[in-house]
Predict the 3D structure of the following.
Amino acid sequence: EVQLVQSGAEVKKPGESLRISCKGSGYSFTSHWITWVRQMPGKGLECIGRIDPSDSYTNYSPSFQGHVTISADKSSSTAYLQWSSLKASDTAMYYCARHAYDSSAYSPFDYWGQGTLVTVSS
Amino acid sequence: QSALTQPASVSGSPGQSITISCTGSSSDVGSYNLVSWYQQHPGKAPKLMIYEVTKRPSGVSNRFSGSRSGNTASLTISGLQAEDEADYHCCSYAGVHVVFGGGTKLTVL
């Protein structure tokens, strides 16, 4: 069974750093790109960026370029999303999603993690 | 890239059909057969309902269908059921990047 299991909710202060994770199982982790998606409270979905776990090649959406870093560890089948200095405006639910097609950056998202709620407040 | 435009809300009675529109541009919806739709119940992760404009994943009811005309994609749900009440998000590739719509809240009256 394909699963993406994300790390638990986080409460942080502005300026702190954070890394959240997304562990894949039940499939070949290096064969499917992973995209990270943000959902701010009461709002729609926004694509942050994506990674090819086979070689850690990444694309970032222009709105997020330079604000976050996406990475992956093949050995643990885990993708990461990290911030070096959080802002209150980073408060949101964050999802990881698997690209459906083998080795394709241009795929629908067939499996999603359960989401990680990040709250940034002083 | 700009977000795709969806109505904030739609509603319908059980058994009726509803259509949710998703308007983009010639740079996204109008150019790529890579439009998808996701259903999201409160507090849950999104679920893929339609991909590549018209295709339905295994296990998704055939009451859900997708279409496109020009720069506007549409999701139609026929025979509305109470369990269909959820948020629906459209999504398209726009060159390298992905854009989502703002989401539409479907209320089953």
Q: What stands out?
A: Chain A has a mean pLDDT of 96. The two ends of chain A are 40 Å apart (CA to CA).
